[in-house]
Design goal:
mainly alpha; two-stranded parallel sheet; 8 helices; 4 strands; elongated
Length: about 200
């Protein structure tokens, strides 16, 4: 009968499934990059491995509803890759995103993006709005103009920052050798602290 055949088929399917090895995303990923990951602890991977691991896990087991979102906000987006954003899209059925960042603040040349089109190409044109903010309230005019000169060769299609009118001391460029700078930095910090300067960046 049809019911008996279905029962026998399910029994054979279940027996066959028991012969499968229970693969985890990490196990599969490590088998692809055995030499790269062999020196790492059993469950320790680098930041750049996380997106591929999530992708493999999603393909193996699907996306748990706990990890589906109505809207995604990404800050410092210049350090994200198109693959990471594309993966987040899979977790956001509405594909509703707010993506914020500054291309000129990309920290690592080997990761992230160099132009916004790399993200824009992931979304339908009719659902995409792009706004470029170029007014800086953070620094003095002298610092902004100095920074614009430094980044001038790398700026591409990005509009240089325009400062609000807040003047300060001129920017000083002090040249030191590698040997000198080791002592010069802590000495300078101590001098600035004595002058009650509370905001110091190295």
């Amino acid at each position: 009968s049809k019911g008996l055949l279905k029962k026998q088929a399910n029994q054979r399917l279940n027996a066959y499934k028991k012969t499968w090895t229970n693969q985890s995303a990490l196990h599969l990923y490590k088998s692809l990059f055995e030499k790269t990951l062999s020196e790492k602890k059993k469950k320790e991977v680098l930041y750049e491995d996380l997106a591929p691991l999530v992708y493999i896990h999603d393909r193996l087991y699907g996306i748990d509803s706990t990890y589906k979102y109505d809207h995604v906000v990404i800050d410092e987006a210049q350090d994200f890759s198109p693959f990471q954003v594309s993966l987040l899209k899979e977790h956001c059925p509405s594909q509703s995103f707010t993506i914020l960042g500054d291309i000129l603040q990309n920290i690592y040349a080997f990761q992230g993006i160099s132009q916004w089109e790399e993200f824009a190409n992931l979304f339908p044109v009719n659902r995409l709005d792009f706004y470029q903010l170029d007014r800086s309230y953070r620094s003095t005019m002298e610092i902004i103009y100095f920074a614009n000169e430094v980044i001038g060769n790398f700026i591409g299609d990005v509009t240089p920052a325009k400062p609000v009118f807040r003047s300060g001391e001129p920017v000083k460029v002090i040249k030191k050798s590698k040997r000198e700078v080791t002592d010069w930095i802590p000495t300078t910090i101590r001098d600035l602290l004595k002058k009650q300067v509370h905001t110091i960046a190295v």
